Amino acid sequence: MRKRCLEVVHRLAKKNKNVIFVGSDLGVGVLDNFKKELPGQWFMEGVSEQHIIGMAAGLAMSGKTVYFNTIATFITRRCLEQNAIDLGLANLKVRLLGSGGGLVYAPLGPTHLATEDIALMRSIPNMTIVAPCDAEEMERAMLASESWDGPMYVRIAKGGEAVVSRPELGFELGRAIQIQEPGEVLFATTGVMLQRALEASALLAKDGISSGILHFHTVKPFDSAALLQAAAKSRAVLSLEEHTVLGGLGSAVAETLAEGNLERPPLFKRLGLPDAFPDQYGSQNSLLERYGLSAPLIAAETRRLMSERLTPAIGG
Amino acid sequence: MTETLDFRKQGRQVRRKITEMVVAAGRGHVGSAFSLVEILLALYKGGVLRVDPRNPRWPDRDRLILSKGHGALALYPILADLGFFPESELMKYCRRDGILGGHPEHHKIPGVEASTGALGHGLSIGIGMALAARMDGKDYRVFVITGDGECDEGSIWEGALHAAKHKLDNLTVLVDYNKQQSYSDVSEVCPLEPFADKWRAFGFETEEVDMDHPERLLKILKSVAPKSRPRAIICHGVKGKGVSFIERNLAWHHKGKLTDQEVVNIYNELEI
After folding, report:
1. A85 and B125 in contact by Cβ < 8 A?
2. What pLDDT, in 10s, does the model give residues A111-160?
3. How far apart are CA A66 and CA A69, in angstroms?
4. Parent domain of A261
């Protein structure tokens, strides 16, 4: 996914001399062709993330569109103030390409995990947040970024994910994609949780439970109209994210449902990472499993939610 | 206007305006602004900066970034005097219907190049602008003013590394080395010495100037810039410069309401 993401940057840069790529201290050989072909639009600036975002702001204020890639958490957690002031307040065309969104770097431990990146970026006015589910959707997102105003954070997954996005469903930044028609259950997904939702949906179908999937490749701006429309047709809504349940997709869904005042509010559950630093290494998959984000565990949680009795009203 | 810049006279006028603004708003970073006055006068009134107040976004303009955004009180009267915005804005400093805040905002104030106040941001932004000038084949220059306390920020030194890496001879950093930060003396809170040597070691052509003689700063700014390396100018000054009881007085780093007597005393010293 990262490879495709950076390839598109290269393509955009060939077309437009004002497109600039900046890396921090990326792996050897990254974008060698880009460097060779367009040396004036290619920068590798070292382990200086705060500086790079400021520099990107200065370039963008001078008419450039800047794509900056490094490890997601070093962009979001370390540089929050630069993101807010230099990019958000100034509303500049800088694209932050965060590698290893979520639990990708599980073996490397909590210093390298990006499990609250979306929450941090979501709190910054003017910031757009995109988390594609596969390389194809990444390509569509990156192509759309060319004409999109303001700063954008792009969450990059591990790579090699099964391609599940479908070109015929279109792609527009800020618009959720209905992957499956609403059923009894609605899964709201972002990033690679779409794949898990599809698997969980197949498991539930065997039990006769139908499920719809609404995929939010863009978490901000949040497509609340699409959510409310689909939620109104569903008995239960589950948000799925490889991210803390605080402040990310699940929060956006919860806020929208809470203020949506649907006539028949659906049952609701946020599935994501707990508010805790992971206490294990292992792999991305093993941690996802541990936190209930494997397809069988998602299906089980869905069944449990469907059978949940409503909390009686106070005094009722 | 270039050869005859009267630092003494204009410095007093700017300090008078700053005082009027602080009186109107009931607050402001007085000491931090007073030490900055001559640096800004040299740049804006000494014929150094190529700017056009009628066309603040002129693509070929020189860029000045006041990275120590809390010094904005010194910048505003000068920008108003040059015609970037009406003088009437000055008395609306920090007011809900004004454009001038306690820290300057780029999208609100004509002539302000970056929103600063969170320290340690301006140098990197300036580096981006200087790189863009080179890419676009433009000859505009970038000036960044930092505070001395601001140089406690690691991001300043990240920027310094990269300014040298890119041999940015269109970039000048001016440090308002007034020797005091919010809590106490710089030498106590976070010593910077040997300060000029640090900038030299980072690859800057480094000059030091005593701000009791601002015409020397002007001379350096007008001299031919070094080739293939950025320039740093350490401006040795005094916090609160220009009014005896404000100089070196930390109570004036950020000041709330002034008493009538304080105002009279300031005006008396400024002899306007």
Report:
1. no
2. 999 999 999 999 999 999 999 999 999 999 999 999 999 999 999 999 99
3. 10
4. 172-306
